[in-house]
Specification:
The complex is a heterotrimer.
Chain A: E1 2-6, E2 9-13, H1 19-26, E3 49-52, E4 59-60, E5 71-73, H2 77-91, H3 108-116, E6 139-141, H4 151-160, E7 165-168, E8 175-178, H5 194-198, E9 204-206, E10 219-224, E11 233-239, E12 242-248, H6 261-265, E13 280-283, E14 286-289, H7 292-305, E15 311-314, H8 321-333, E16 339-340
Parallel strand pairs in A: 1-5, 15-16
Antiparallel strand pairs in A: 1-2, 3-4, 3-5, 6-9, 7-8, 10-11, 11-12, 13-14
Chain B: E1 4-9, H1 12-16, H2 19-32, E2 39-44, E3 56-59, E4 63-65, H3 73-82, E5 92-93, E6 100-101, H4 108-111, H5 129-134, H6 139-145, H7 149-159, H8 171-180, E7 187-192, H9 201-208, H10 210-224, E8 228-234, H11 238-253, E9 258-261, E10 266-275, H12 284-291, E11 315-319, H13 320-332, H14 334-338, E12 348-355, E13 361-366, H15 371-378, E14 388-393, E15 399-402, H16 412-417, E16 426-431, H17 436-450, H18 456-473, H19 481-495, H20 499-503, H21 506-524, E17 539-541, H22 551-555, E18 561-562, E19 570-571, H23 581-585, E20 591-593
Helix pairs in contact in B: 6-10, 6-13, 7-8, 7-10, 9-10, 9-11, 10-13, 17-18, 17-21, 18-19, 19-21
Chain C: H1 5-8, E1 13-17, H2 21-24, H3 26-37, E2 41-45, E3 58-60, H4 67-80, H5 86-92, E4 93-94, H6 96-103, H7 108-115, H8 119-131, E5 135-139, H9 141-144, H10 149-162, E6 172-175, H11 182-187, H12 204-214, H13 226-234, E7 240-244, H14 248-251, H15 255-264, E8 267-272, E9 284-287, E10 296-299, E11 304-308, H16 321-331, H17 341-351, H18 360-366, E12 369-370, E13 394-395, E14 414-419, H19 435-440, E15 445-448, H20 450-456, E16 463-468, E17 472-479, E18 487-491, E19 520-526
Parallel strand pairs in C: 1-2, 1-5, 2-3, 4-13, 5-6, 7-8, 8-9, 14-18, 15-17
Antiparallel strand pairs in C: 10-11, 11-12, 14-19, 15-18, 16-17, 16-19
The chains are: A alpha+beta, B alpha/beta, C alpha/beta.
């Protein structure tokens, strides 16, 4: 174990831990944009810089290993000045449409400007001016809001493996975009939505939730994806009894926040107008709405008319354990073992 | 048996000013005079005095001709080679004393130099390994192969050799880290991605003495336990690449690169990787990313390359000039090397001397030499009798050093203290007509353009600093601009990811430190003291010259010029928009600027 | 899966066969690519040039339906080159000698003749798999949806046992299960022959346990499987069908046959969230709550039981399936008293030894549990067969290759193979109701190789008619080298191009009763849509 001092408090950490991890252990907050514990750190955004005594310049706490005897300050004048100036630099090149921006309330740039008292930028000058890419049905890319933290690029390469986006140009003209600066639709993007989840600002916005809810109005419900057998954890974000949007559940041990296009963008079938809402009975070849009472009575009556072994049931690989259990219990209780489901298909 | 030997400088500078044409003309002339057997003509590497190229030296008498052309060859052959008369008009003339100098050792540009790294440049045929070997080449490697790697590391540590590429990190420590790093595979990388504008010492070294660099690489390889190296050289250096390839092929042929070198059991492979010219690829981690085929962007350190470098393997990265010092240290010993230089900076440093001095070119000087000696002796003083103002040292990452520090001994530590840095050794001399704000703007436009865009402060900060500097030089500066500049500069320096960003504000910070009054004059008085910023010029009419022809009043778009016919006119500075129309229109030169 | 999803990314070698993982199990697909990035060797075997083939160290593009031969070929090399794990074989298995004898004739050259995979590639793949310290096999329906499906799985087990790749981390035999709770449905006894936890209906002790718990007498004869039940209807042996959350009218082979049966059956109850193709044939349709509208548990492909939680209420009068079933049972006079899904789960754990240690509280606290979890305090089982196999020793079961039931002929010269794509799911009942997914992939695009397209004069996007011995469908085509010449690929997501009108329901794996959906013989024609 290494021992270091942060803001006057001593902390012991495993060798290989970063200053950021050591600070977390002490409950000391350090802001980050480009940090993601599941990725290799790149130290690009510089908002997490801290002062290490005897070091020439400030260091990025997300990727600087803690060292024995290190004395760190996370809130010195020098650190605060650097954070404020860097926020001010970001703000100078960022649209200030927070009133209507979808990210308001969960935007890290907004949060940190609040935290460090940066209200508007001192530095007026050229700004990015890119067209929106909203050619795909899943999300909008507004590169004018991008702060170039690179999380989306790294997730696309290192987690998804699609490698659909990269930086082009350099310096002030850097931009994250697919090959040939094409719309996403023509790229190798598989629309997993993980970049959208990772974006700290409003550069990547899921279309389904636009003008549906402010983040603080949303209730998060953790559940499991209804599609394939991987069993990914999803966070359903709900307002007024409606799932407004979905993101990967970082706490799920199977998927660790990872998603695919269906889990991320394919849950809106819940609100389809075609959902069945009442029991139906077929009369003369046509369905008529009926009550639960009548429908269940009819089913029960018909069941009593046939021999036990003449009953067969198909359970569901989509329903819960409890429901499948009860289904086979019901069929078997009637005296039939003809219960199966589509595991073979 | 040749009676005479003629060296024609074939560095890139001299080639572009016509060295190949000179060679062809000389060969023709020699043939005409049946002298091919008596005179041997050699294309050499760079002599450093590129401004005076093409250069031609006749041995054994050591007569130094400069600015020769193909058309001069008949005269040179007939007069000098046939008749034994020196062609005086082609000799060097001291710009201050007007004295003609025939021997290159006597030229101030050369006499104050100490050419150790450049010892072979301009002397040997760089495409002939024998010439390198005859002058002691590969003896250093032999010595290293006879030693234990730890002894080699120890020697470099004791030599005090510091990295010549920029920050001046002790080379021996780098080697020791790499030596101590565990790994089945280790690399040596030679950083030949010379990118500072105006700096060309690495190119000249590679072109003029490629084997010295190869030898240095292999000694490093032996020291750290590596068997493979990459030379990362920019594709804009085709001649350097060609000569390196030739040198590698010759060394392979001689068994100096390959398997079981000199029967020592030491194997070595050297690869060349051509860079695409991004300045940031000179930064070691960006360079490694580029070799790996990734986008050339810096990575955080630690881990340092010595621990986790190329493809994750321990890697020792040194620049060309550093590595070219190594064979000398191995051959002549630590004591010999440490006899040159200052306490903290041993050996020599090559500078690319440019700007407003009389003699520009490449010079190698001992550490500790004063700026005054470099500017006034080697550089021959300021051109046109103008007044000296400052030097910008260390390229775009360096800083401006004012006249008051002319007697500063140049070494790594003194320059850093003065707010500049050794950098790769660019040295630009400036006279009274250089605007320091404009100079800072120039260097910022370079670093801004070369910022890779990865980290926030450098990407956004260099842009904003440049915008402010542009504003000031255009006469639109605001009172707060100096404090804004300082705020961004400090942040960019303190929080950027790599050396590019951390040093990019240096030109601003040093000009603000030493020439703050020039900024203030631009902002508050809308005046450029050096008279360089076009938008800040003010126009006036010299009443002595003006004959009142009224021509200027007709072109002035804002009716700022008044005066009676045939009487001297006056420009109303309040109204004048400094468009310059009157200046162009006046046939008598009465319209002037201040 | 014998092993867990989280182990994949650190495997030394991965063998993916009959699984287009990046489209059908995308998150597992990411892990395979991560493993590759970390230095794993990747072997991919598939008739189509799937995305993972681009990442593979060796790609074995076999003819559809020749998986068994390929697997035996790999075993042949592993035996021949002594890449076997002798200690594992001696200690943990029996029947190895018979296996050696059986795979002797499957030399790479012989197998090349059957599969079309170059012998050198078979050798290379076997070496990568056999020399790795740990190697995992992942497979999906590409292995099982064949007449030879069971044999293919046995061959995979032989391969894993012979190389000792079972019962240790980053290895194993890993079927990637296709649906969110297909594992759970099996665990829960939604099968004709077993109760929960695979307790058999025909074993008295086990059946009696359930009789006692449920308070009813139970039948000891296994019932009909999904593929058999349609015949049973047509034979008049089944008169009442209750379908909960399934859509056999699109998912089952030879849809004409299914249609006929569902029309024929006396009474059909369908319980679903949409009026599916199957529901349209029902006498009574019961509206169900979707996954986000109820509580319960799903079991994923690595046997992890996870909680699902209610986020919103069901639309209209729709109710969770468990509520509907309870109300119906009560109407039938059964003594069911469930107030919550958790009540049901408690009954499950009481009756199911492998679930005995699981509770909602633990699932909540521990982020799911992998069965077997036989008692409270048991951490769950991430790797099966660690020290012993469930049945003692692992038995090598030699399998012989036999060709698919239907091979191309003069009349039907092409092979049709079916599956899913990334943007839709199964019969599309959910995904086609999602605005984004429906907009991005609005219709079927049958994959046709450029050579075949040229022969037919097809251009990209042309309409085609696909005909088999059982029926015909139309679809748009896309011309791509993902499919080799002679092979056409279609999904079963689109009722407009219902591919299962073409597939064959008679060709069924004799053991698992899985239909041969992965190959049937077809012909293609240009068509007007």
């Amino acid at each position: 174990m290494l021992s270091l001092t942060i803001n006057g408090h001593e902390v012991k950490v495993e060798p290989g831990s970063t200053i950021l991890q050591a600070a977390e252990k002490l409950g000391i907050f350090i802001p980050t944009f480009c940090y993601d514990p599941q990725l290799a750190q790149v130290g690009a955004c510089r908002i997490c810089v801290v002062e290490v005594e005897k070091a020439r310049a400030l260091v990025a706490s997300c990727c600087t290993p803690a060292a024995d005897g290190m004395i760190v300050h996370t809130d010195s004048e020098r650190v605060l000045a650097a954070r404020q100036a860097n926020l001010s630099l970001l703000l100078a090149n960022h649209p200030l449409d927070c009133l209507t921006c979808e990210k308001t309330g969960e935007c890290k740039l907004q949060d940190y400007c609040y935290l460090y008292g940066v209200d508007e930028s001192d530095f007026v000058g050229a700004q990015k001016d890119y067209d929106l890419d909203d050619t795909n049905p899943f999300y909008i890319r507004d590169m004018n809001k991008c702060i170039l933290c690179g999380l989306c690029v790294r997730i696309c390469y290192d987690v998804n493996g699609a490698g659909a986006i990269e930086f082009i140009n350099r310096g002030f003209d850097s931009k994250v975009t697919p090959a040939f600066d094409d719309p996403m639709e023509y790229s190798s993007c598989v629309f997993c939505g993980m970049c959208v989840d990772s974006c700290p600002v409003g550069a990547l916005i899921p279309k389904e939730s636009i003008r549906q809810a402010r983040p603080w109005e949303l209730k998060s419900v953790k559940t499991i994806c209804p599609y394939c057998g991987t069993g990914c954890g999803l966070e359903l974000l709900v307002k007024d009894n409606k799932v407004v949007k979905v993101r990967g559940d970082l706490s799920n041990p199977v998927s660790r926040g990872q998603t695919c296009v269906k889990g991320h963008f394919g849950i809106d079938f819940l609100d389809s107008p075609d959902r069945l809402k009442t029991p139906l009975v077929k009369k003369n070849g046509e369905f008529r709405e009926t009550t639960w009472e009548d429908a269940l009575e009819l089913v029960a009556a018909k069941l009593k008319e046939v021999k036990p072994t003449e009953v067969a049931g198909l359970a569901s690989a989509r329903a819960t354990n409890e429901e499948n259990y009860l289904f086979q219990k019901l069929i078997r209780s009637l005296g039939s073992n003809s219960v199966d489901h589509c595991a073979r298909l | 048996m040749y009676e005479k030997q003629i060296l024609i400088c074939a560095g890139t500078g001299c080639i572009s000013s016509g060295a190949y044409e000179v060679k062809e003309a000389l060969d023709n002339e020699l043939q005409k005079n049946n002298m091919e057997d008596k005179v041997r003509v050699i294309l050499s590497g760079c002599h450093g005095f590129c401004e005076k190229g093409p250069l031609l030296i006749v041995y054994p008498e050591d007569i130094f001709y400069c600015e020769v052309t193909g058309e001069d060859m008949p005269e040179l052959v007939e007069q000098h080679l046939v008749n034994g008369n020196i062609v005086e008009r082609l000799l060097y003339k001291d710009p201050n004393t007007e004295q003609i100098v025939s021997n290159h050792e006597e030229i101030l540009f050369y006499s104050k130099q100490k050419r150790l790294v450049l010892r072979n440049c301009g002397v040997i045929d760089p495409e002939n390994i024998d010439e390198y070997i005859i002058r002691g080449g590969y003896q250093g490697l032999k010595n290293a192969l006879d030693k234990d790697p730890s002894e080699v590391v120890e020697m470099i540590k004791n030599s005090g050799l510091r990295g010549r590429g920029g920050a001046g990190f002790p080379a021996g420590m780098k080697w020791e880290f790499a030596y101590r790093s565990q790994g089945d595979k280790k690399y040596v990388v030679c950083n030949a991605d010379e990118g500072d504008p105006g700096a060309f010492m690495d190119r000249s070294t590679l072109e003029g003495d490629p084997h010295a660099v190869l030898e240095g690489i292999m000694i490093a390889g032996k020291a750290i336990g590596s068997d493979e190296a990459y030379i990362y050289v920019r594709a804009e250096y085709p001649l350097a690449i060609k000569r390196l390839r030739t040198a590698i092929a010759q060394a392979e042929e001689y068994g100096l690169i390959g398997e079981n070198i000199l029967n020592s059991g030491f194997n070595y492979k050297v690869n060349i990787k051509e860079g695409a010219g991004a300045f940031v690829c000179g930064e070691e981690t960006a360079l490694l990313a580029s070799i790996e085929g990734e986008r050339g962007m810096p990575r955080p350190r630690p881990p340092f390359p010595a621990v986790k470098g190329l493809w994750g393997k321990p890697t020792c990265i040194n620049n060309v000039e550093t590595l070219a010092n190594v064979p000398l240290i191995m051959r002549k010993g630590v004591k010999w090397f440490t006899s040159v230089g200052t306490e903290g900076s041993k050996g020599t440093k090559i500078f690319a001397l440019t700007g407003k001095v009389n003699n520009t070119g490449l010079c190698e000087v001992p550490m500790g030499i004063t700026l005054r000696e470099v500017v006034f002796d080697i550089g021959g003083g300021i051109r046109g009798g103008k007044k000296y103002k400052a030097v910008q040292i260390g390229g775009p990452s360096g800083g401006c050093i004012p006249e008051s520090l002319l007697d500063l001994p140049i070494d790594f530590d003194s320059l850093t203290q003065a707010g500049a840095m050794m950098g790769s050794g660019g040295l630009v001399a400036m006279d009274e007509e250089t605007c320091m704000v404009d100079l800072a703007r120039y260097f910022l436009s370079f670093t801004q353009n070369e910022s890779c865009g990865k980290c926030t402060p450098c990407r956004e900060g260099t842009k904003r600093m440049l915008e402010i500097l542009e504003r000031i030089t255009e006469g639109k500066g605001e009172a707060e601009d100096i404090s804004r500049l300082e705020k961004i500069a400090v942040t960019v320096k303190d929080s950027s990811l790599c050396g590019l960003g951390q040093t990019a504000p240096n030109p601003i910070l040093t000009t603000l430190r030493y020439f703050r009054d020039e900024y203030e004059a631009h902002i508050y008085d809308r005046r450029c003291p050096a008279g360089m910023c076009k938008e800040l010029l003010s126009y006036y009419i010299d009443p002595e010259i003006c004959n009142g022809c009224r021509a200027c009043t007709k072109v002035c778009p804002v009716e700022a010029i008044t005066g009676e016919k045939k009487e001297p006119h006056v420009i109303d500075e309040e109204k004048c928009i400094a468009c310059g129309a009157c200046l162009d229109r006046c046939k008598f030169g009465a319209v002037k600027t201040k | 899966m014998t092993n867990s999803i989280s182990e994949i990314e650190d495997a030394q070698a991965l063998f993916v066969i009959g699984s287009n993982t990046t489209e059908t199990h995308p998150v597992i697909g990411y892990r395979i690519k991560m493993a590759k990035n970390k230095g794993a060797s990747l072997i991919v075997a598939d008739p189509r040039h799937i995305d993972l083939a681009d990442y593979a160290d060796v790609f074995l593009q076999m003819r559809p339906g020749t998986d068994g031969a390929l697997l035996n070929g790999l075993l042949n090399v592993i035996v021949d080159e002594s890449l076997i794990d002798k200690a594992f074989i001696e200690k943990r298995t029996e029947g190895f000698e018979e296996l050696v004898a059986a795979v002797k004739k499957y030399t790479p050259e012989y197998v090349e003749g059957i599969t079309g995979v170059p012998a050198a590639d078979i050798r290379k793949a076997a070496r990568l798999y056999g020399t790795a310290e740990n190697a995992a096999i992942c497979y999906t329906m590409g292995i099982t949806q064949h007449v030879e499906g069971t044999n293919n799985v046995l061959a995979i087990a032989n391969l894993a046992m012979a190389s000792g790749n079972l019962g240790k981390p980053h290895s194993g035999v890993n079927p990637l299960r296709g649906q969110n709770n297909v594992q759970g449905a099996c665990d829960m006894g939604a099968l004709p022959n077993v109760f929960t936890g695979y307790q058999r209906v025909d074993m008295d002790a086990q059946r009696e346990k359930f009789e006692k718990a449920w308070g009813v007498a139970l039948n000891s004869t296994p019932g009909y499987t999904v593929t058999e039940v349609m015949d049973a209807v047509l034979d008049g042996k089944v008169k009442f069908m209750y379908v909960m959350g399934e859509n056999p009218s699109l998912s089952d082979p030879n849809l004409h046959h299914v249609d006929e049966a569902l029309t024929e059956v006396d009474f059909l109850v369908v319980q679903d969230i949409f009026l599916t193709e199957t529901a349209q044939k029902a006498d009574v349709v019961l509206p169900a709550a979707a996954f986000a509208e109820k509580e319960g548990t799903f079991v994923n492909t690595e046997r992890r039981v996870q909680l699902i939680r209610q986020a919103v209420t069901a639309p209209g009068e729709a109710k969770p399936d468990w509520v509907i079933l309870t109300e119906l049972a009560q109407r039938l006079g059964l003594p069911w008293k469930y107030e919550s899904a958790e009540d049901v789960f408690r009954e499950i754990t009481d009756l199911t030894p492998s679930y005995a240690g699981i509770s909602y509280q633990r699932l909540e606290n521990e982020g799911g549990l992998q069965w077997p979890c036989p008692e409270e305090g048991h951490p769950g089982t991430s790797i099966l067969h660690k020290d012993v196999f469930a049945k003692g020793k692992g038995v090598f079961t030699p399998v012989e290759y036999s060709p698919p039931a239907e091979e191309p002929c003069q009349e039907y010269p092409l092979i049709l193979t079916t599956g899913r794509d990334l943007y839709h799911y199964h019969t599309g009942s959910m995904t086609r109701q999602s605005k984004g997914l429906a907009a991005f992939r609005p219709m079927e695009k049958a994959q046709v190789n450029p050579e075949d397209a040229k022969a037919l004069g097809l251009e990209e996007g042309d309409a085609i008619k696909i005909t088999s011995r059982r029926g015909e469908v139309t679809a748009r085509s896309t011309i791509t080298e993902i499919v080799p010449p002679g092979v056409v690929f279609m999904t079963f997501h689109f009722h407009e191009s219902a591919v299962n009108l073409l597939t064959c329901c008679e060709a069924i794996d004799p053991v698992a009763k899985i239909p041969e959906l992965k190959t049937c013989a077809i012909k293609l024609e240009k068509a007007a849509l």
